[in-house]
Amino acid sequence: MSNRREFILGLLTISALGGVYPALADPQFAINGDDGSPVENFKMPVELDPAQLAGVVWKGAKTADISIYEFFDYNCGYCRKAAYELDALLAHDPGLRLGLVNNPILSLGSVQVAKIQQAILRLNGPDAAYAFHMKMFERHGQATGPAALDVVRAMKLDAHKIEEAADSSVVADVLSRQAHLASNAGMAMTPSFVLAGTGIMGWPGKQSLQDMIAAARKCDHPACK
Question: Which of these CATH numbers, 3.40.50.11540, 3.30.70.100, 3.60.10.10, 3.40.30.10, describes 4-15+39-202+215-219?
Fold first, then answer.
C-alpha cells in the first residue's frame, strides 16, 4: 500500500479502543474444545450484536437457520486453521451461515489486508471477498498490504481501484466499528466467535464447534444445560 502513515494511524486508532465488556472469568456454559480444555465463553450484550455491523463478509445460504460470526486476524495461525475447517463445515451444512468480522490486532499488515478485503467487498461483492479471504490463508508468510495486492492481481481484480478504495474513509470507518465492537466485547484473542448470543474465545476445534452448532439448533445456546 502506498500511504504507510494512514495505515499506522488506522492501526493506532484501532489499538486505542478500550473494552468495556470484558469476557467473564466464569464461563456461561461448560464447553470443552477438541483437546479437552475449557473454552472461555460469555453472554454477548445485546447492544454489541454483530448483526448490526457493516462490512460483514457472509458465506452460506441467506435462509440458514444458524449464523456464526468469526472475529479474526489475517496474521493469526489459528485463524488459518479455522478458515479451512469452517469452509468444510459450510460445504456440508446448508443450514449454516458464516459472517466474517475483521479484528486486526496483531500487526500493521493485518490492518492493511483488512482494508483490502473491505475494498473488494465494496467493489466486487461478498463472493469475491470470501475468495480473497481463503486465498490469503492459503499463502505462507506474513500477511501484508503488498502480499494482499499480489492476491488481488492473481484473482484478476483491478488492483488500482481496490487500493484506492482501501484507503477511503468509508473503509476506515467500517473497520473501526468492527474492531470497536470486538474490543468492547473483550475479544482480545483471535479467532473469537459469536454463536446464539454467546461470545466464544479462541478456536475450539471443528468437532467442538459442530457440537455447539447442534446445541444452538436444539436449545438456542451453544450448550444445552
Answer: 3.40.30.10
